[in-house]
User: Fold these one by one.
Assistant:
Number 1:
Amino acid sequence: RRLVADGRDTLAVDERMRTRRAEASSTTPPLAPDAGGNRVVYDAQGAEVLPGTRVRDEDDPPTGDAAVDEAHDHSGVAWDLFADVFDRRSVDGEGTPLSVTVHYGRDYDNAFWDGTQLVFGDGDGQVFDRFTKPLDVTVHEFTHGVTQFTAGLTYQGQSGALNESVSDVFAAIAKQRALGQSADEADWLIGVGLFLPDVKATALRSMIAPGTAYDDPRLGRDPQVASMDAYVETEEDSGGVHINSGIPNRAFALAAKGIGGNSWERPGQVWYAAITGGGVTPSTDFAGFARATVDAATGLFPDDASVAQQVTLAWQEVGLLL
Ligand code: ASN
Ligand code: ZN
């Protein structure tokens, strides 16, 4: 399906979107069967060479390869989240086809956005299962693409931790929307299902309780921090981008719960407006990002001051805007 990209008639597109919304409000299937816009999945066949061999186009049927089919389905959910909820087509907002490579490397324990495409390892089969398996991991990586084309947050220190956090925020939003869970019903975990069963890990990260996702001899303990008083200064991990992202992650989870309802509605609109509205730039720090979200909340909901108030309270809870 080549949505808007090749200019196919928009009536048909509108009709499909309406159908999808109706389905979501009634039975809320975890994955809409017609998810996605214009995806191309490639197979690296265990090499670390990109993009690899083209194996599944947008309109092709399932291949029977779990990683290929999960990558197709989950990147479709990411595409649809941004298209249907935030009116954004693909990572660049221009509907550019999305390339996704699976079976990258051998026992490869990661997934990433390389600046142009998504890439997924198969995991080592001892600790990590396939990185295509959890929906939210794919949405996290997709959102790195969105951030690159919008706020452009530099992947180092506080701006890097914000880049990481924005990816977790939209990952959580996508998961909650797929499950039909409100902010209060959600588990706020990222990467459930990524770890193999005997690993002492519930997930990769917890947005509501950063630092509590795992504690296993093979992994160590979840190093994420939950507030500014615990901010970690380090040279590793691009200045602790996956550690300090716990701080803005928790701010979003608290804001969403404080605002109430579904995270993909008012809270998601506020965070999306912040990253696309010009108030967040490549060098924005935590305090600047916090102000941008409060400004976005005020701008989007001028008649309901409680939204900006809940956003402010959430940031104060993690040690910002004090
Ligand atoms: N999975 C990691 C991430 O998206 C890969 C990386 O970029 N370090 O944050
Ligand atoms: Zn990331």
Number 2:
Amino acid sequence: MGGTFDPIHMGHLITAEMVRCAVPLDEVLFIPSARPPHKDGTRAASPEDRLAMTKRAVQENPHFSVSDIELKRDGLSYTVDTIAELQSRSHGATLFFITGADAMNDLYLWHEPKRLLRSCQFIVATRQGVPLDELLLAEKFTAEERSHIQVLPTPHLEIASSTIRARIREGLSIRYLVPRTVEEYIEKRGLYREHDKEL
Ligand code: ATP
Ligand code: MG
């Protein structure tokens, strides 16, 4: 499961656990991505902080782990390269990429989307308010490429990292939106409190 995880929240964790049981999967690897500063006026956390929060969030689940594969890579980081790298390391394991519908609808804009689709199976967790754009997918991808996309209904949790960042900036509670360990880390490090001055 790739994402900026800025911060990781219960929507990510519950989705990952539901997908793990439904497919079923042996393991879910959370892969924080490199990313430019946010454009929504909230302050972004550093890659180190995002990685640390993701590690804290998954530590209790023996089926969850975190990879810094994208953060360690120099230059632009593409999912297609990440999948290829994981494939070469995973000794014949079948790889799945878990995304929300919003990310899937944008997939055609990613680097080498057709090669990416063909390189693994995509599990799309439905996300409230964001239906999968079947017409757009049919326009951008062949039926063979689309056969790599599997939609999986998951509990609808209207939680987004952007809402969490906005709540912190406004001094509102984020309890139960993120694991306690993540809440404590955010508090201790004073993350997301101020507006990003350059924006
Ligand atoms: P932001 O608000 O900053 O865009 P986000 O909450 O969407 O953050 P991301 O790190 O961008 O989180 O998401 C990583 C992946 O998790 C994406 O594929 C996204 O669709 C999915 N996702 C995020 N929130 C949820 C949720 N509440 N339920 C299901 N999937 C989610
Ligand atoms: Mg998002």
